[in-house]
Amino acid sequence: MANCAVEGGCPSDYIAIALSILSFIVLLLWSIFPFLVHKVPRTKGSGFWIPVIQVVASFNLLLSLVMSNNFLKFGKRHWWQSCYLWGVWGEGPLGFGLLMSCRITQASQLYFIFVKRRLPLIRSYFLLPLILLPWITGASVIHAMKPLSNRCHMRAQWTIPVVCLHSLYVATLVGVTAAVHHIEFRFDELRDLWRGILASTVSIVVWVTAYILNEIYDNISWLQVASRFLLLVLASILVVAFFSISSSQPLLSQISLRRRESREFHTMGQALGIPDSGVLAQTEPISRINPNEPLDKLLLNKRFRQSFMAFADSCLAGESVHFFDEVHELSKIPEDDCVGRIYMARHIIEKYIIAGAAMEVNISHRSRQEILLTSDLARSDLFHSALNEIIQLMKTNLAKDYWSSMFFLKFQEESNVRSNGYELEQMTGWNFSPRLSSVHGTDDPFQQEHLLKSSGCSNDTTDI
Fold first, then answer.
1. What does the pLDDT profile of the chain (464 residues) look like in tens digits?
2. SS3 category, 234
3. In 10 A of CB 441, how many CB atoms?
4. Which burial class, exposed, middle or buried, applies to 397 when counting CB atoms under 10 A from its CB (0-12, 13-18, 19+)?
5. Which one of 21, 95, 160, 262 is CB 3.0 to 4.6 Å from 61, fit for a cystine?
6. How many CB atoms are located within 10 Å of the residue 250 CB?
7. How many CB atoms are closer than 10 A to CB 190?
8. Run of H or E including 171
9. Taking Cα atoms as reference points, which of 80, 35, 28, 36 lies closest to residue 58?
10. Which contacts of 147-155 are long-range, i.e. CB under 8 A and separated by 24 or more positions?
11. Among 65, 67, 95, which Cα is nearest to 81's?
12. CB 103 within 8 A of CB 242
């Protein structure tokens, strides 16, 4: 016991390592499950890279505990086994500190979006390093003073400040989360945050106790073995219980491992329960389309909008119509439902407005900044200016070509058939399902290779 307590390789050490490997595998499966199984497209921005950083921080924390606490028995010391590399930087700023900073960043995003009703004033890639700065400063001081022994242990005068730094980050997360506790979230954001806080608080009490015992009483062999076993096992539990992707990407929470319903939601409107969202109801009124009417009025007809959207997708210019469709869905949410409107508005901003978005629309810088800097994400006219510009763009680039395309001819033919009393099932060659993203020109609903040429798509673009 005394020998392996110093050199590593005790049976309990290998058990703890096996549990940590298992926990990290579970964490990886949890994080990639929506993307591999449900084919969820990878999002840009903090909704993707913050969960990725959480996974990396979890790996750093577990590996640094193994390396700095002599879990493995090495024949001789190597430079890459440095106590300051693993025990100071890996376990601190790049491990527990980074994990907590990601969670605090997510909580602050929820605070700004749902309490302040505006996008965060500081972008996540600036806020995260700012939150992590105290930990980096502390690690730099320890590295400069070099208080660690040859077994990577510190005495009480250094252990207590390190423990206080751990507790400070947990207290900060509790404070920020408490500021949003009154918001009635539609998904699992608040529950996940509180679960993370509960897991981290319970774990950190035992973890800190084991940490102090491991650092100070390094002359008691059985205590060394038991305390480092608890350190790694509790850290393994912490990284699994602490990780959740829904705090930054609420739509993914509906198709994750926690989903309790068999129904899948393909759009934010469906997830929010907006009536007839993404569905072309059989009761949709049939009306003759007059090309002389304003385009914005014609697009209010869902059957026409689906036909026009399919035409725009075939021209690789469908983002404008999809934007109109989702803003129209937003208008169905009652103005007194601020939380629902904020969810939908944030979804539209992330999908269409921010630079480099998956379906970024061509609007003026003034309109874009008006949306991004708004003081109220729930206001009814948030996208009014952008929508007017998009409608003008569609009139210039798409509308004239649509009236002479096969899409409009097919739409007229189906309208005539419907008006004569035929059922939808008797018609073939048309798909009324909503298009969730731009498609390639080869996606031909009529199975005709020459459709793109005959549709009359214009490649001209007009900058607003």
1. 556 766 777 888 899 999 999 999 988 888 887 677 666 666 667 777 888 898 999 999 999 988 888 788 776 567 677 888 988 999 899 999 999 898 899 889 889 998 999 988 888 889 999 999 999 999 999 999 988 877 777 777 888 888 888 889 888 988 988 898 888 877 766 777 777 677 767 666 776 677 666 666 666 777 778 878 888 888 888 888 776 555 545 444 333 333 444 445 567 787 787 877 765 555 555 566 777 888 888 898 888 999 999 999 999 889 999 999 999 999 999 989 998 899 899 889 988 998 888 889 999 999 999 999 999 999 999 999 999 999 999 998 888 889 888 998 888 888 777 666 544 444 444 444 443 433 333 333 333 334 444 445 554 444 44
2. helix
3. 14
4. buried
5. 95
6. 22
7. 19
8. helix 156-178
9. 28
10. 148/83, 148/84, 148/87, 148/88, 149/218, 150/83, 151/6, 151/70, 151/218, 152/68, 152/69, 152/70, 152/83, 152/86, 152/87, 153/214, 153/215, 153/216, 153/218, 154/215, 155/215, 155/216
11. 67
12. yes
Residue 131: count other Cβ atoms within 10 Å of its Cβ: 20
Two structure tokens written together for 126: 């600036």
* Long-range pairs of 23-27 with CB within 8 A, sequence gap ≥ 24: 23/62, 23/236, 23/237, 23/239, 23/240, 24/58, 24/59, 24/62, 24/236, 24/239, 26/240, 27/55, 27/58, 27/239, 27/240, 27/243
- Token pair, residue 79, equals 């430079």
